[in-house]
Design goal:
119 residues; Helix Hairpins; transmembrane helix; transmembrane; 5 helices; membrane; Cation:proton antiporter subunit C
Length: 119
Amino acid sequence: MIDVLLARLPYVGSVVLVAVGLFVLVDDENLVKKVLGLNVFQTGVFLLFVTAAYRTGADPPIVTADGGPYANPLPQVLVLTAIVVGVSVTAVALALTVRIYREYGTLREDVLREELADE
């Protein structure tokens, strides 16, 4: 069993990152910690894409005389695009968090819900 887990360590790592990020998103009341949980979740998904696309002994996708296995560049391009989108989402989320803190003086979700219910 240990040998199987060690052989698939990147997959196990991506599942752990996704699980930790999802747990923080669902469980924590602090908005900044939720943004960090979202980043951990995204990192797990990125690791899963890169791990799934990895091929041992693959050549760059340039047509040559030999017909060896080629590496598919599409997953890496998707991950790079997702990283850019993730950074943008993080920046907007943190900007909204700063605005919420200036308006209400707290970042706890339960306190915010109580204040919004009172208004």
